[in-house]
Amino acid sequence: MSRVLNNHPSVSEETRQRVQEAIRLLHYRPSAQARRLVKGSTDTICFILSNREFLKTFHARILQGVQSFISTTDYQIIYIPISYQPQIPPSAITLPRIITYRDAVDGVIVAGTNYPNFLAALEEIRVPYVVFGNNMIGDVPDRRVDAVSFDEEGGAYEATKHLVDLGHRDIWFLGNTALPWFRDRFNGYLRAVSDHDLRGRWITESDTKDNVQFGSLAISQAIERDPEVTAVVTGNDHVAYGVWKGLRELGVAMPDDISVVGFDDTELCYLTDPPLTSVSVHNEEVGAECARMLLDKLHDPGKRFRERVLSTELIPRGSTGPVCTARAAAGA
Amino acid sequence: MSRVLNNHPSVSEETRQRVQEAIRLLHYRPSAQARRLVKGSTDTICFILSNREFLKTFHARILQGVQSFISTTDYQIIYIPISYQPQIPPSAITLPRIITYRDAVDGVIVAGTNYPNFLAALEEIRVPYVVFGNNMIGDVPDRRVDAVSFDEEGGAYEATKHLVDLGHRDIWFLGNTALPWFRDRFNGYLRAVSDHDLRGRWITESDTKDNVQFGSLAISQAIERDPEVTAVVTGNDHVAYGVWKGLRELGVAMPDDISVVGFDDTELCYLTDPPLTSVSVHNEEVGAECARMLLDKLHDPGKRFRERVLSTELIPRGSTGPVCTARAAAGA
DNA sequence: CTGAAAGCGCTTACAG
DNA sequence: CTGAAAGCGCTTACAG
Description:
- The structure is a homodimer.
- By secondary structure, chain A is α/β, with parallel strands linked by helices.
- The first copy, chain A, is 41% helix and 15% strand.
- The first copy, chain A, has three domains: 2-30, no CATH class; 41-145 and 284-310, Response regulator (Rossmann fold); 152-277 and 316-331, Rossmann fold (3-Layer(aba) Sandwich).
- In chain A, the strands form three sheets. A six-stranded parallel β-sheet of chain A has the order 2-1-3-4-5-11, covered by helices on one side. In chain A, strands 7-6-8-9 form a four-stranded parallel β-sheet, sandwiched between helices.
- In chain A, β8, α10 (237-250) and β9 (259-261) form a beta-alpha-beta unit.
- In chain A, α4 (57-70) packs across α11 and α9 crosses α10 (237-250).
- The N and C termini of chain A lie far apart (85 Å).
- At the A-B interface, α3, α4, β2, α5 and α10 of A face α3, α4, β2, α5 and α10 of B.
């Protein structure tokens, strides 16, 4: 019967029919466990979300990318959120039970916010894994991890350049650089500003963890300190949304007086008027790339892959416009 | 060795030590498959998201609830998005490979948007399942499915009553009732209005699928047709957000001139000024309840559970206020 | 308390 | 082309 189930070539048509008839009659369903035991593989990968309160849209899109790649194969995805302390030694981390088995999952995709100690713990039990690199905090010491990232720094560079190309010269950066990813974005901004011989100005410290609120506050401070400002690059869409709100309260028009660029290309972009220009990080591609890399590793155990960095894409929308518009408005 | 691993009582301390030493030395990790084969159970449940483009926040919260309940047990969750046609017969639906096995998953939680044919297909292969009931479209014919829902109708009733209690008499409902869940909410609104001898008015048709846009349009139409309107109940937070935007453009103050209630208690509630009063549906509790019911079923095979309906909770915020404020403002 | 054996339900050479 | 047997790596009575 096994041969019928697995489409073995050497089965006579008649036998095949008979067996399939019996299968139907008996409501037979094969045992996945027994098959896996003898096959030695599980066709299961694990998507681990670390240190996040729940699966927000950003990571849901990554998971979606993983899923859409994986769905072309026979693999399936186990979803596990975990949390752990950054400081504790690897051996003190309690790994999810399921990955402590030798053959329950073939490999792991590690998303969420992660620290080197967790990766070390995975190394210890020799589970093949791929990391979503952008939210890694701290360096992985001596070895190159297999990671997929998108280019925060390049995205911010592009965003800034977009404003420069529109004629802006007085461009601020608003975003709390205590967050590592905001720091990379800030660096991209700095490089772009310096490449174009402009003077950069910024607000990178924040009392609040609420990025929307930070945005509103920061833009009013920026305008106060620098009434000539015509454009801002923000740490993410939430900050940009806050900026939009702040501008409305101040009676400043976007983009006529001030152009605003967000980052992450979230749903927030469509909640402002006009919609936000933003940097899309293509989360689904990131997820698909994680999945691809992991499957490559599974087929080629022990092999190390270089970090793969996906480029971002600026999506121009109504929140950014040529600087002349702003001047005309100011002159009117 | 097995006895050591499974903490069998009758193992001498010395033997235990020796065995664990060997386990460490050899980097031994047990085989999940072999154990499951002999145990006969998988400790795996499957979270199926039907007919959705991806895991949005609403369902992510349900999944989170499932997860947080399940994490107190030894179960794990396989995540599978699927899509199928509502009209085709059950036998024509391609079920995810994994649940066609007899012992790969112990049970299934069905979320997303679902139709009776899919449930029938699950019945056919005798997989224990629990359905998230609110997004079921069409009735399940002769038998009671095991489902968990929240009370849309009651939530809308409560929202409307909240406005009545604040003194509002001219309350509109805005929401496209082509969507079944909006229809239930509309019914709750109607019942509340009728219970308080008020005349209800509404806009329940829409050309656009964009609820934000619908909200903006609808509120301006409502005001045009009925300048006396002092409050609106909306289909969900997106509609309410659109209403807020529309009000700003019209120069109408919220809540001073018009009070607004949203539904779902999403992140949007904090994006308006002031924040939206909304009806929380406690997604995580819904998820946890699905998980609890499914595990109950697994322990008690064949048992049918009644649909469990969880109550919603009105979360009052700044977008609703007493009607007197509005009158005072109008008089000023 | 512990060793040795049976058995879970498959797949896959091995004979015929 | 197909039947019968070995073996995957565990758990759990069964002896001792």
